[in-house]
Structure formats: structure tokens, C-alpha cells
């Protein structure tokens, strides 16, 4: 079962990914983790990425897709995977589709967590307050100003993916403002249908 999770920062993708991993036994693939692992392993595409990063450049879509292509060949991803945080743009989605097509595989579904952005900002501000109250350092991403900037970037770059995947008949939407367990229940009902198809 090959899944992409979409939704703005703070929508709960990380929490739900952990639950999918536990239930279906497929790995969650984070581009940041994959990039670091490829660089550490010294793979051909990892060496390309390292050279770009050392020169202060941004790693190209082609390199990121190459790293994803290598990672999904590993044994633990044979039964499927969750992509979280990639693709971020329609161009990346098109490159991902082409790469998967070359391998003779396809995505099963794309799940978007639909959330109220104003409520999200409040949720993040509350999390920052609680963290500070415990005497722990507040993550830079959890300050309302930084969070609003991340939301703006999501709206511009990543939100168009909804239409892209809806056009391909892959998009499923879930109300991400419900309690965590209710979101999981809805998510599992969507994924179980695909799991049954994969199993048969």
C-alpha cells in the first residue's frame, strides 16, 4: 500500500503516520531522513546531494526523487510506504509519478487532512505555552510567527497538490480537526479498503 499524506504543518500527519506504521507494517519515508541516510551511506545520489549541500545549494527535485527511488527498493518498503513531506510541489508530484511508472508501480491513495488554519495557529500557540510552562525549550517552528510563515509556504507550494491528485482520482479528504482517535478511525477505514485490494 503506497500512500501520500497531505496537510499543512500541525495537521497531525506525524501522529497518524506512526499509527499507520504500527497497523500496516509499512515504513514512513521522510525526505530529510532519506537524504541524510543516502549522504551517510555514500550512494551515488547521496554523493550528488552532499556536493550540492556543501556548496550551499538546494537539493534538486531530480536528486530527491532519485533518493526516494533508491529507498523504495529496500526490503521494508516492498509491501508499501508512506510519503510524508514529499512531494511538496506539483512538479515534484509529476517527477514522482514518472519514477513510479518506470518501476511499474503506482500510488494507492493520497490522504489530505483538512484543517482550520486559524485553529491550527491557536493549537500551536497553546503547545508552545505548555512547553514553556514545563520549563522546556520551545521549538522554533512552534512560535506563531514562524508557524504562520510555514502555513503561507504550504498554501503557495503544496496546496495545489489537492487538485492534482483529485484530478487523478486518488485524493481522499479527512477532517483533521476531529479528536486524534476519530481521525485515525476515519483514516483506517479509508486505508483498509486499499489494504484489502492489495492483499487480493
Key terms for this structure?
about 200 residues; alpha/beta; Rossmann fold; 5 strands
Report on this structure.
The protein is of the alpha/beta class. The chain has one domain (2-26, 79-199): P-loop containing nucleotide triphosphate hydrolases (Rossmann fold, 3-Layer(aba) Sandwich). The protein has helices at residues 13-24, 31-41, 44-54, 61-71, 90-102, 117-133, 144-158, 161-167, 180-199; strands at residues 2-6, 28-30, 81-84, 109-114, 171-175. A five-stranded parallel sheet has the order 2-3-1-4-5, with helices on both faces. Helix 1 crosses helix 9 (180-199), helix 2 crosses helix 4 (61-71) and helix 4 (61-71) crosses helix 5 (90-102). The longest helix has 20 residues, at 180-199. The N and C termini lie close together (12 Å). The model has no long low-confidence stretch (mean pLDDT 89).
Short description:
This protein has helices at residues 13-24, 31-41, 44-54, 61-71, 90-102, 117-133, 144-158, 161-167, 180-199, and strands spanning 2-6, 28-30, 81-84, 109-114, 171-175. The protein is α/β, with parallel strands linked by helices and 200 residues long.
Amino acid at each position: 500500500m503506497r500512500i501520500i499524506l497531505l496537510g499543512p504543518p500541525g495537521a497531525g500527519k506525524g501522529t497518524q503516520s506512526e499509527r499507520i506504521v504500527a497497523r500496516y507494517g509499512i515504513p514512513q519515508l521522510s525526505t530529510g531522513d532519506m537524504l541524510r541516510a543516502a549522504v551517510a551511506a555514500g550512494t551515488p545520489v547521496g554523493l550528488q546531494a552532499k556536493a550540492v549541500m556543501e556548496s550551499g545549494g538546494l537539493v534538486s527535485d531530480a536528486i530527491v526523487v532519485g533518493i526516494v527511488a533508491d529507498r523504495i527498493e529496500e526490503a521494508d518498503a516492498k509491501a508499501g510506504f508512506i510519503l510524508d513531506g514529499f512531494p511538496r510541489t506539483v512538479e515534484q508530484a509529476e517527477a514522482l509519478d514518472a519514477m513510479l511508472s518506470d518501476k511499474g508501480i503506482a500510488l494507492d491513495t493520497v490522504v489530505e487532512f483538512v484543517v482550520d488554519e486559524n485553529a491550527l495557529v491557536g493549537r500551536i500557540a497553546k503547545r508552545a505555552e505548555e512547553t514553556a510552562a514545563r520549563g522546556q525549550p520551545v521549538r522554533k517552528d512552534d512560535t506563531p510567527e514562524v508557524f504562520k510563515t510555514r502555513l503561507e509556504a504550504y498554501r503557495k507550494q503544496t496546496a495545489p497538490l489537492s487538485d492534482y491528485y483529485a484530478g487523478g482520482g486518488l485524493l481522499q479528504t479527512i477532517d483533521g480537526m476531529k479528536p486524534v482517535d476519530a481521525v485515525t478511525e476515519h483514516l483506517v477505514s479509508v486505508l483498509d479498503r486499499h489494504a484489502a485490494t492489495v492483499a487480493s
